[in-house]
Amino acid sequence: MATTLITGGTVVSATGRGAADLLIDGERIVALIEPGATVLGANLTETVDTVIDATGKYVIPGGIDAHTHMSMPFGGTTAADTFETGTRAAAWGGTTTIIDFAVQKFGERVQDSLQTWHDMAAGECAIDYSFHQIIGDVNDESLRAMRELPGEGISSFKLFMAYPGVFYSDDAQILRAMQTGADTGLLTMMHAENGPAIDVLVGQLLAQGKTDPYYHGIARAWELEEEATHRAIMLAKLTGAPLYVVHVSAKQAVAQLAAARDRGQNVFGETCPQYLYLSLEDQLGAPGFEGAKWVCSTPLRSKHDHHQDEAWQALRTNDLQMVSTDHCPFCMKGQKDMGIGDFSKIPNGIGSVEHRMDLMYQGVVDGKISLERWVEITATTPARMFGLYGRKGVLAPGADADVVIYDPNGHTSIGVEATHHMNMDHSAWEGYEIDGHVDTVLSRGKVVVDDNTYLGRKGDGRFVRRDPCQYLT
Ligand code: DUC
Ligand code: ZN
Ligand code: ZN
User: Residue 348: CB within 6 Å of ligand 1?
Assistant: First the structure.
């Protein structure tokens, strides 16, 4: 097995930082050692196969993006990144594991949908991957099938309170699925927006001739995110189901989660970079049809209501526990443009899988979160939350050697112009400048990105079976 020593860097974990060398044997980390240590009288730098100099740089666990949608059929089209292109872009950006969503469509068997996602991803991925299971048709058979998921290495499932006629579950279905989830040791993930009420508002806005992308954000009012979040929390309380609310954007939804946590309930929330940086007015309200680039659900919120500040604050106080991307990219040409003249036909989704680590690092530079919290919300908590900890999310003996060497003195320009690697004809982040740079990325001991050169291969990434989720209160 080849040995690698990452030397001279500052190793950063969720709890601290310090000078240490990282010794890797094959796919695993074997030791964190004092810089310049000797083993059996020999200097390690002379005995290992490869030495990587990380002087002046941070050495962190590879990022885990726990919310992606590669090749997802949605909104009359299919998300533009495949497992091949999307995981390659993720690797470029310092993410070494994704957890994507297998989608059970209405009328489909859960097992068949999971197999479909395995077939789509197998042999295609540049980095390791796992799946959550979307239950899009809660019925007796799918509830039975949910009981098989832990045996398949799947420890979480997702329901939608939005998208009536597509993925939507009503309250009775949610209650039953949560009961089964609680009983089976599965974490319930929830898209919390009141879909039927949104559909009424969409119809009314369109009837008034309000067809621009901006009105996507008006129809999906924060009240309908707050209400659904509250309802999900109450149903979870009743059933004893731990609850994880995805893509939280409204400060009022954050407050619902915080209040439930204060009462001692096992509820958690993720937010996404778009809700920390972008707004209803500046992006969704861009001139003409431009705003379509930022149509996603939950939607971007008003910059006048301090949702962004509250989300950063919640990340600091652990009222929100982690940051994923909800990576679901659609091109403007041939996909987003289906909604010219009717915002409700714009496929919902933003592509960010490549930029999450950088965008969150900018939060460190800007004084919004600490360096340690950066590691925690992008790697360590996702690993714990979703049953990967020990193997992923930590630099410790026995863990997979998924490692990012991050250069705080480097610089990253984001956008199509700067040649991003996602399969998109635009970037939701065009022009963003980051005061840091992903320098080197190792996936299970193999260097996949080295100083702006991609060295990975499709098929290097493996499916990772997950343990039960670890609920952090
Ligand atoms: N929201 C999105 O923006 N895209 C995918 C699905 C979702 O809920
Ligand atoms: Zn969603
Ligand atoms: Zn999603």
Answer: yes
